Amino acid sequence: MVSNFRMPPTGYGPGSQPEVDGELEYMPLPQDMRTFSPHIPYIEDLIGLDPAMTVMAEVARAAARVAAGGPVERFDLGGLDAANRALIAETMGEGEVAMKVRGRPALRMQESVFAGIWVISGAGVDAIEVAQAPGAARDRAFVPHRPMQNVEPSGAVVNAPPLLVELADKSASWPGDLHVVNLTLLPHTEGDLAWLDARLGQGSTDILSRGYGNCRVTATAMPHVWRVQFFNSMDTLILDTFEVTDMPEVAIAAPEDLSDSAERLVEVLEAIA
What we know:
By secondary structure, this protein is of the alpha+beta class. It folds into two domains: 50-132 and 253-272, HupH hydrogenase expression protein, C-terminal domain (Ribosomal Protein S8, Chain: A, domain 1), CATH 3.30.1370.140; 160-251, HupH hydrogenase expression protein, C-terminal domain (Ribosomal Protein S8, Chain: A, domain 1), CATH 3.30.1370.140. The protein contains six helices and ten strands. It has helices at residues 50-67, 82-92, 135-139, 160-172, 190-200, 255-272, and strands at residues 73-76, 97-101, 107-111, 117-122, 125-130, 179-182, 205-210, 214-219, 225-231, 237-244. It has a ten-stranded antiparallel β-sheet with strand order 1-5-4-3-2-7-8-9-10-6. Helix 1 runs parallel beside helix 2 and helix 1 packs antiparallel against helix 6 (255-272). The longest helix is centred in the first third of the chain and has 18 residues, at 50-67. The chain is elongated and about 70 Å long. 30% of the residues are buried. The model is unreliable at 26-31 (pLDDT under 50).
């Protein structure tokens, strides 16, 4: 008669694992994600700083209006003295998204810690703009910095020509729905990428969005076509795409973000006062 009894495998059950003194150690989680934490500038005396406080209060009200569907609003900071300008700079801080727009004037656009509130600087330009994305970054995005080149495909170019046709068709039919070409999921060669880069050229707007890793966005010289690349915290490319759109979503502040920014900025100003 065959017994149903089976000996338990070794290495299991009470007493089979070594004793551990102290607390368990866990693998560290990513620490590079930026999250909002209110920073209240320390001001001993607000005498002479009324202009900065007035401008920031107006910016908060503008954020609420833009969140509700209002137009982009811009505030010139050029007339402020050094102390007032310093208070604004410390209050605004630096958020996740930065943009560079080539041309005249070349512009640097830094999102503040309040999403949708952008600090814009350049030759003769010192301003705050309240918008989902800065107007110049949209308007000048596809002005060629490196023009599109009519390069014939070589033997190393395998799958790029139909991709170019697809992108050109979606570009010509814009406005339309967001269209994404995911290079990460498509077979391609280095020759394909180099040929597409030459044929599409480079526009005037570059964007960097920082989170757990980086998202680098580059406008091409073909209208409404963007190169969007996601990198992990080790700076390894994990997602490579082309997007046909007005502005990639990763660079846009949502209406909810702007509404939240309006409330948080008011809270910070109340704490300063």
